[in-house]
Amino acid sequence: MPNLKYVMFNDGLKNIPIIFPDIISHKGIADAFMSSKEGKKCIVVSAGFIDVHVMEVSGCSQSLGIYSRPEDERIIRLYQWCFGINNIHAMDLIEEKLKARRTE
User: Fold this and answer.
1) Which residues contact 94 (CB under 8 A, 6 or more apart)?
2) Residue 54: count of CB within 10 angstroms of its CB
3) Are 62 and 19 in contact (CB under 8 A)?
4) Which of 42, 54, 71, 75 is most buried as measured by Cβ atoms within 10 A of its Cβ?
5) In this structure, what are the phi and psi dihedrals at residue 27, rounded to the nearest 5 degrees?
6) Where are the domains of the chain?
7) Mean pLDDT throughout 62-83?
8) CA distances (Å), origin 73, targets 32, 41, 53, 104
9) Which helix (H) or strand (E) holds 17?
10) In this structure, what DSSP letter does residue 39 have?
11) Which span out of 75-79, 88-92, 93-97 was modeled with the highest average pLDDT?
12) CA–CA gap between residue 62 and residue 96 (Å, rounded)
């Protein structure tokens, strides 16, 4: 059962995921972020739930009327290394390096 929610924003250059507890509404987070200086430049591109046990995204946000996307899982997982830049080649290289570290 999912126990976290997320909203994915895009500022035209990069994706910005915000992850939060499931007791808060997607719309509440989206409204709060988009009223900030940084958030005024963004649009909501997806939202849904994260199952932290298997690191999978799913579902949709009824309050925003938007669905999760398959690529969100990878963006969230690699955000700390790619900072939301959805460059498939760079993400592939980072995943390879992370896998190599785990096998060392």
Assistant:
1) 78, 81, 82
2) 8
3) no
4) 75
5) -65, -40
6) 4-103
7) 86
8) 23, 23, 13, 25
9) strand 15-21
10) G
11) 75-79
12) 36
The one-letter amino acid code at 95 reads E
Long-range contact set of residues 65-72: C-beta below 8 Å, sequence gap at least 24: 69/8, 69/45, 72/6, 72/8, 72/17, 72/46, 72/48
pLDDT of residue 90: 59
Helices in the chain by DSSP H: which ranges? Answer: 26-34, 70-82, 88-103
How many whole angstroms separate alpha carbon 48 and alpha carbon 70?
11
**CA nearest neighbour of 40 among 12, 67, 65:** 12
pLDDT tens digits, 37-55: 989 999 999 999 998 888 8
> How is the beta sheet containing 15-21 ordered, strand by strand?
15-21, 4-10, 43-51, 56-58
CB 76 within 8 A of CB 17: yes
